[in-house]
Structure formats: C-alpha cells, structure tokens
Amino acid sequence: MKIPFLTREQVEEIVKTCPTPFHIYDEKAIRENARKLRKAFAWNPGFKEFFAVKATPNPYLLQILREEGCGTDCSSMSELCMADAVGFSEGEIMFSSNETPFGEFTKAKELGAFINLDDITHIPFLEKECGVPKTVCMRYNPGGIYELENGIMDCPGDAKYGCTKEQMVEGYRKLQELGVEHFGIHSFLVSNTTAEEYYPTLARTLFTLAVELKNATGAHIAFINLSGGIGIPYRPEDKPVDILKVGEEVRKVFEEVLVPAGMGDVAIFTELGRFMMGPYGHLVVRAIHEKHIYKEYIGVDACAVNLMRPAMYGAYHHITVLGKEDAPCDHVYDVVGSLCENNDKFAIDRKLPKIDIGDYLVIHDTGAHGYAMGYNYNGKLKSAELLLKEDGSVQMIRRAETIKDYFATLDICPQMHKYL
Question: ω before 45 within 30° of 0 (cis)?
Fold first, then answer.
C-alpha cells in the first residue's frame, strides 16, 4: 500500500488558492533521501551527486538539493542557465549533452562545468568552439548486451550514446595532446532498475576500464561517474532500492579494483534523477466526469500534458482516492484525461474504491519525469507546481500556465493580440 503525503483535508485547503490539477513535492522527504545517498557514499571523500535536472527542472527544488550538497547534471542550454541562476558554480555542474548544438559547450565552460563528451568526434568540435578545458570526461558504451546475474538489463549496443573502448583510448590521447590534465569516465547503461547489483556491476565495468585507460595512456583519472539508472518502486509490491547496501557494495569493488592500481584518489559521482525526486511528488487531480459504456470511466481534470508516462510507456502509477484510503477497491475503472488521444489514460482496468464526482485523486511517484515531460498538445496548459515545506506550509514554486503564455510566441500575429 502506498500512503500519500497529503490528506484530503490538506488538498481542500490548497484548492482554495490553487485549483487542481497540480504537482506537489515533499521537501522533508527529498532532504532525507539526499542525506541517505550522501551517507551511502561517505567512504569516498570526493563523492558528489549531480542531480539530473531534466527529471524535475525547478529552481526551488534545485536549491533544496544544493543545500544538501548536490550538484546538477545538465543536458541543454536552458538547464545550464537554470543551474547558474540557482547558484551552482565551478565543479558543481556536469554537462552531459549529445549531438550538442553550437554555443552550449561555451556556456558550460564559462560556468566551470565538467564537460562530458558523448563521442570522439566532439573533441575537435569542442576545440574549435571554445577550446578544451583542463578536465574533460568521456562517455563509455560497452556495446552488446549488458547483463547482471539475474538476467539481461539492457542493450547498450543499440543505444546512440557513448564511445567504444578503443575510442576512449584514442580520445584520451587526443585530449592529452590538447593539454587536458584530468579525466573523467561516465556511462549510463540501464534505466529505472531496482536491481541492487546494477551499480556495483557497473562500477566494476568502469573501474576496470579506468585501470586500462591509465595503463594505456598514463592519464590521471580524477572521477568516475556512475550516472543514473537506479529506479523506484512504482507499484506497491515493489521493493525499494537499499542505497546504503548499494554504496557499500560499490566500496568493495573500489577497494578491489582501483586501490591496488594506485587509484584510490578517484572521486565517485552519481547522476540520479528519478531516485532523488520521483517518490516525493504527487499529481493531484479531481474527478469531474464519469462514463458508463463498455467499460467504466472516470474523467479527471488532468491529462497526459500533466503526466505523459502512462500514455507514452504504459507506465504504472499508483492512485489513491483521498478520504477513501481504507475503502474496499471493489470498482474497476479506466482513469482518463481529456486529450483527443485514446492513450490518454492514467490507469486501465484499475481496482479502486467507488469514485464520486468531486473526489480528489493522488497519482503517486510523479516527482521525476512528471511535470518535466509535459507539452501543449490540444492547446492544453501545464499545471502549477507546489512545495509541501518542512513546517507543513505549502508554497507555489511554479504558477500554472495561462492562455497568454500559450500564445506568447504568436505575438507577431495581430489576430492573436486580443489574448496577449
């Protein structure tokens, strides 16, 4: 059973000033989780979490993570600008883009970000655009199929990201010729796994590669970025990842592989998004319609604009009907939105308590890749974002979009001026 961090009474108070739908985040839980991650890797003096901004790009939330010692992982100009505005500075930003447009490397270098090159051909691109900094990271793709003891995890050979091992060696040598003094290694091979052996297995892959690169090139490897991929328990029966256990297992591999090679000074970085924020966000919606045809439908005042994952991936998000937490789940519904697309469904054939018009529903685990993936199809407007603060108060951290916002880029069109 998943327990919301909001009650019906709290929502009824919130909607007096901010109507549904809205995303809301739990500050206390976010801070506690960040501290737990830091504790898990406290054995590594250089450890740092670079939060994946793409998961939840909101400056108020970034500020919370900054206060907890995190950095940011950025993948675009906009994300770099947001990190800069919040106050992240040299050594606190990882720039991991791919097929990078002109100008973004320049901005990253200006901010003192660690630049993570996705491909060996990006080396001359970087040199020509803004010059090569003294520290550069390269992204590794081992190819083939990536397996753990319990089976196949993913197929990196089919992914567009990263360099081969041979290209890593060649790239390091080219970068050394251009004056690079310190190197990083990065790899992202699996998304949203709750297998606790993933990080230790990946660590062994990257630590072994680091030793090989050092032996082949003499390069000083300053950090190894295990990136993201650690998932969350979307379903009530799923087991959450024990991050303390994961950190301890990575430590064992570190001492087995890197320390004997004289590389005990290597810093470990992570680049988590979903794990850092996912469980600590809700999308709160209101039941506004019901339909009885071949199936039973509950229509809510949100749609895939507010949460795309169920429509895009068929992803499961648990739903709680506020005020009916203890009621029997003896009704079967499709919970749907208002888009002109049949996949605009938050739940299909979901067993829930009887839902009445006006009921508030909490859609769980929307703290990452929830608001961030929204769009404006059908002219739908994105919702507000709120923060449940540690003292119990609620703060708006992003207002809802308006019609004026939607038409803002049509200010060149005289016919639209009545709405601007």
Answer: no
State the pairing for strand pair 319-321/182-186: unpaired
Could you tell me which residue, 226 or 146, shows the higher pLDDT? 226
Taking residue 323's Cβ as centre, other Cβ atoms within 10 Å add up to: 16
Distance CA 215, CA 335 (A): 57
What would the mean pLDDT of 1-10 be, rounded to a whole number? Answer: 96
Contact yes or no for 42/63 (Cβ under 8 A): no
- Give the Cα separation of 282 and 362 in Å (integer): 6
Asked if pLDDT for residue 233 goes beyond 50, the answer is yes
Element at 281 (helix H, strand E): strand 281-292
Q: Could you give all domains of the chain from N- to C-terminal order, each with its CATH number?
A: 8-22+279-410 (2.40.37.10), 27-278 (3.20.20.10)
Task: Tell me how far the alpha carbon of residue 99 is from its chain's centroid.
Answer: 20
**pLDDT value for 223:** 98
Nearest Cα neighbor of 118 from 250, 225, 267, 275 is 225
398's CB contacts (< 8 A; 6+ apart) are: 58, 371, 384, 385
Q: What is the largest CA-CA distance in the chain?
A: 71
Cβ-proximal residues to 377 (8 Å cutoff; 6+ apart), any chain: 304, 305, 339, 341
pLDDT at 152: 45
CB 293 within 8 A of CB 361: no
Distance CA 37, CA 369 (A): 20
- Asked about 81 being catalytic, the answer comes back as no
C-alpha distances out from residue 334 to 234, 299, 352, 369, 404, Å? 18, 8, 10, 22, 33
Q: What is the distance between the alpha carbons of residues 290 and 299, in angstroms, rounded to a whole number?
A: 6
Write down the catalytic residue from 70, 74, 81, 340.
340
- Coil, strand or helix at 25: strand
Say what angle helices 59-67 and 27-40 make with each other, to 10 degrees.
40
CA neighbor of 296 nearest in space, from 343, 342, 351, 235: 351
Average pLDDT, the chain: 95
Residue 342 in contact with residue 209, Cβ under 8 Å?
no
Q: What is the C-alpha to C-alpha distance for residues 301 and 284, in angstroms, rounded to an integer?
A: 9
CA 21 – CA 300 distance, rounded (Å): 9
Q: Is the dihedral of CA 43, 48, 49, 52 positive or negative?
A: negative
Q: How many residues are present in the chain?
A: 420
Placement of tokens 């994300």 in the chain: 79
- Token readout for 147 is 């397996």
